Automatic annotation (TrEMBL):
Originating species: Cereibacter changlensis JA139
Transmembrane spans: 62-82, 88-107
Keywords: Membrane, Transmembrane, Transmembrane helix
Matches recorded under InterPro entries: DUF983 (IPR009325)
Protein's name in the database: DUF983 domain-containing protein
Length: 130
């Protein structure tokens, strides 16, 4: 096995890539924006030129968002109802706004982290030489 082959097979640093992905930055350089718009992943990084079109995030970020938001909001709804006994319409309004806001915050960050995970693990074409 040549040095080039062993370099291609090694995983890239995972934690820096995930942090950069969470920040919606290029997992390779951390300087260029990963997303164009709210959820559209760029074809390549405008700073370092790393190809990003290989990603296969699909529905993963949405499922993770639902999972996280559900696990945060369900206990809060129960606690808020038991502790304060608000009017049901007030409770529904407050937690609807909170759920939507948290979902809109998490979705692009989780998509960036999922693309960064695929980049770090050389999945779906990220590991092939150009």
């Amino acid at each position: 096995m040549t040095d080039r082959q062993s370099t291609l097979e090694e995983d890239r640093p995972l934690m820096p890539a995930l942090v950069r992905g969470w920040q919606c930055r290029c997992p390779s350089c951390g300087a260029g924006p990963m997303l164009r718009g709210y959820l559209t992943v760029r074809e390549s990084c405008p700073v370092c030129g790393e190809d990003l079109h290989h990603h296969r995030a699909d529905d993963g970020p949405a499922y993770l968002t639902i999972l996280i938001v559900g696990h945060i909001m369900a206990p809060l709804i129960l606690w808020g109802f038991v502790e304060y006994r608000p009017d049901p319409m007030v409770l529904a309004t407050v937690f609807t706004i909170g759920t939507v806001a948290l979902s809109l915050f998490l979705l692009p960050r989780l998509k960036g982290a999922m693309v960064a995970l695929q980049w770090a693990k050389r999945m779906h074409g990220f590991g092939h030489a150009a």
